[in-house]
Design goal:
Blueprint lengths: L12 H24 L11 H21 L2 E7 L2 E8 L8 E7 L7 E7 L5 E4 L6 E9 L6 E7 L5 E3 L2
Antiparallel strand pairs: 1-2, 1-8, 2-5, 3-4, 3-6, 4-5, 6-7
Amino acid sequence: MQERDTQPWYKQFWPWFLIAIPLSSVIVGSVVFNYATDGTNSLVVDDYYKEGKYINARLDKIEQAKALGIVTELSIQGGAVSLQFIEGAPQTGEALKLDFFHVTLEEKDFDVLLTRDASGIYRASFDENIKGKWRLRLMPLDESWKVQDTLNLPQSAPFRFIP
């Protein structure tokens, strides 16, 4: 007569193996579902009409920068920003705001306040990691004009920043 294995089922390998397959599917499915419903997509605009009106207002500010003849040279190296006006420098010497917008990740966006030193160069420093593609926007504090461009950072050489 053959001797049977009299271990209970929960001490054997195969029942647990067969239970683990659907259980892992449920766990992975719930993680994916939670990830998919976890927030909003920051790249999608809900109100296209208001966004269109806002785009037109932004274009007016670019036209104002062109009318003022603003041409700058921007250098971004090692957490330091320097901006020199070649043409169209503001006579008041007021501070300027430089916005960094990451092209895909809204949580990486930041801005710096550029102040003019004695030699007429606007400077600021920052601690953020700027590797990748960025959209830069330069404006005075009263937002009367705007210069913007998209570029890959970091760049070793200064570049022309014109409207």
